[in-house]
Amino acid sequence: MQKISARKAVFVFDLDDTLFSEREYERSGIVYVFKHFQEKGIGLVQGFDVETLLENRKGWIDAFIQACTHAGTTSSEELLALYRGHVPDIQLYPDAKILLDYLKGTEAKIAVITDGRSLSQRQKIKALSLDRYADEVYISEEVGFEKPHPYSYESIAVKNPGCHFIFIGDNPKKDFVTPNRMGWQTIGLRDRGHNVHRQEFKVLEEDFQPQKWVQKLDELIAEITD
């Protein structure tokens, strides 16, 4: 991979499972809602706990509703509103923080492109203190387009003419194809063993794959020059 000059570089990051663990977000939300109902004096169905729900991610909403609604005092809408609106107990991956702190000490710019609801993604950004790092943030619900639609990528390119762009993400299904076709550098972060979305390597089109894979984000510091 070519060396990256920080002076005219824009580092564009995916959010979930790239800068932090999405599983920890789910755990935080489940714990928050459990505590909310416990404080209201609503017990839980025996046998349901945080780990049980996390192990059955596809069915956790139904299981969660069953665990919290047997007293007849809530609804799925109320439950999901609590979950999506809570300020999560999450942290940046240590290597992500190292890289972001390093970039903040250079002339490089930092941007985030993330899919999801505005409320939940903004709460994640708040909890991670990403506003300290990111010059631009694009959330799919706010801009009206999900990855791999080019809108957010092109918006960053237009605002930063003459720059070199590096996109860093984890999901080959949607993260890399657009920046690859735009001539950006693309870097994939390997699954740490708990990613919410499995990494699919049997993608037909080569441009869906990143140009380089790394195990940890701070590996990239060796590729960056002043």
Task: Please summarize what this structure is.
This protein is α/β, with parallel strands linked by helices and 226 residues long.
Task: Characterize the structure shown.
The chain has 226 residues and is an alpha/beta fold. It has two domains: 4-21 and 90-225, HAD superfamily/HAD-like (Rossmann fold); 24-85, no CATH class. Helix content is 37%, strand content 15%. It has helices spanning 22-39, 50-55, 60-69, 76-85, 94-104, 118-128, 140-143, 151-159, 177-181, and strands at 4-5, 9-13, 109-114, 136-139, 164-169, 185-189, 212-214, 224-225. The strands form two sheets. It has a six-stranded parallel β-sheet with strand order 4-3-2-5-6-7, with helices on both faces. β5, α9 (177-181) and β6 (185-189) form a beta-alpha-beta unit. α1 crosses α4. The chain is elongated and about 60 Å long. The mean pLDDT is 87.
Order of H and E elements: EEHHHHHEHEHHEHEEE
Major sheet summary line: 6 strands, parallel
The end-to-end span amounts to: 16 Å
Quaternary structure type = single chain
Structural category is: alpha/beta
CATH architecture term of the largest domain: 3-Layer(aba) Sandwich
Q: What would you give as the CATH superfamily of the largest domain?
A: HAD superfamily/HAD-like
The neighbouring-strand order within the major sheet is: 4-3-2-5-6-7
- Molecular shape: elongated
Low-confidence stretches: none
Question: What Rg is obtained from the alpha carbons, in whole angstroms?
Answer: 19 Å
Rounded mean pLDDT score: 87
Proportion in helices: 25-40%
Q: Class of the largest domain in CATH? A: Alpha Beta
The fraction of residues in strands falls at 5-15%
Number of helices: 9
Q: Got a strand count?
A: 8
CATH topology of the largest domain: Rossmann fold
Number of domains: 2
